[in-house]
Amino acid sequence: MKNLEGLRALWETARSVIPISAFLLLFQILILKKPIENVKDFVLGFLLSVLGLHFFLKGVSISLIPLGDSVGKNLIYLDHRWIIIVFAFVLGYFATLVEPGLKALALEVEEISIGAIPNKVLIQTVAIGFGGGMALGIFKILNNIPNTKIIMPILFIILILVYFAPDEFVAIAMDSASSTTGPVNIPLNMAVAIGLSKIIENSDPLLNGFGIVGLTSLGAVISVLTLGILAKF
């Protein structure tokens, strides 16, 4: 029975990968009129993608999400709230460092800029901004602050920074924000935020627990724009 459930779950994962793979394959052959250069590598890569995604999702569901939820629920027992906020920053910072999407983006930026923007500098900058956004999000939950009172000032700050930052950094900032919302940050940080919100009195997890990912992304935008302004000098 368990084997049947496992195969069913594996098939569900394969069903999510098959459409995009089939679309690209048919577009390459029928529209672009180009053959697949190495069929064996393509098939192997497809199988590895399905297996990798399946095991990752399974691992997240039985480890990261429950752990994050448990940590979030127990944060409230710390004596000082500033410790919780520092914890949130450190969590967001280190979780961002391992995001594969951010690493890929940073390498592309370094290549296109001919080394003017080193990948390590960009990764560290984004991680600091993301950690700051995570800390701000947890601060919002602890104090039951409405989303609008947090988001509106941040958007105003971003508009000012966009005006002064070089155009290339504005584009990089937008992409950096989206690259942080990957397979590590989203399940872990959301689980912590929702777990904390569940345990706080008069806190609605639907209103306070969600939105944390958006705040962390805005933090990354601010940090990259700030880096661009500093780079001008």
Automatic annotation (TrEMBL):
Keyword terms, alphabetized: Membrane, Transmembrane, Transmembrane helix
Pfam families: DUF1538 (PF07556)
Keyword Disulfide bond: no
InterPro entries per record: UmpAB (IPR011435)
Transmembrane segments: 12-31, 43-61, 82-102, 122-143, 150-166, 210-231
Record's keyword annotation contains Nucleus: no
Descriptive protein name: DUF1538 domain-containing protein
